[in-house]
Amino acid sequence: MRIVLEAALRRAGHKECGGVLMGEHVGPNHFVVRRLTVHRPGAVAFFVRHLGGVVGAIKRYCQAHGNDYQRFNYLGEWHSHPLFSVQPSTQDHASMRALVTDRSVGANFVVLMVVRLNSTELEGSVHTYLPDGSVHPSFLDLEG
Ligand SMILES: [Zn+2]
């Protein structure tokens, strides 16, 4: 997973890239990522506004794992900040709050991971957004 992520970041260079995180909620503000998707650079903002487009892929993924929504759930999304801090921007906070309070999405929580390659080191931040509007610093294990 870490290798997939690093390869995507390297390919994107100075452009932002991102995608969807799927996996397991293992404890308070602690998640294990079992799968992540990579969208082409520049598609991140588009993606945030069109989450519905990937719901089919998420459903297929869950069906392939016996509809075990506890272990294989939509966790949220990730994107890169190649040129600045890995802390979520004001716009990031606003987008994720909008996502988690959107009734048509119906999420109990949404996770945002922001990453970048600092020379060869992968660095990042993880936050969990709840429908009550609160934000919590979180932990993410990248499986595999
Ligand atoms: Zn961002």
Plain-language structure description:
31% of the residues are buried. It is globular, with a radius of gyration of 14 Å. By secondary structure, it is of the alpha/beta class. The protein has one domain (2-124): Cytidine Deaminase, domain 2, CATH 3.40.140. The longest helix has 13 residues, at 52-64. It is built from 4 helices and 7 strands, in the order H-E-E-H-H-E-H-E-E-E-E. A 7-stranded mixed β-sheet has the order 6-5-4-3-1-2-7. It is 28% helix and 35% strand. It has helices at residues 2-12, 44-49, 52-64, 90-100; strands at residues 18-27, 30-36, 73-80, 110-118, 121-129, 135-137, 139-142. The chain binds zinc ion. Residues 79, 81, 88-89, 92, 114 line the site of zinc ion (ZN). Residues 79, 81, 88-89, 92, 114 line the site of zinc ion.
Distance between the termini: 5 Å
Radius of gyration: 14 Å
Integer average pLDDT: 81
Bound molecules: zinc ion
- This entry's quaternary arrangement is single chain
| Proportion of residues in β-strands | 25-35%
CATH superfamily: Cytidine Deaminase, domain 2
Structural class: alpha/beta
Strand order of the largest sheet: 6-5-4-3-1-2-7
How can the largest sheet be summarized? 7 strands, mixed
Q: Helicity range of the residues?
A: 25-40%
Just name the CATH architecture: 3-Layer(aba) Sandwich
CA-based shape: globular
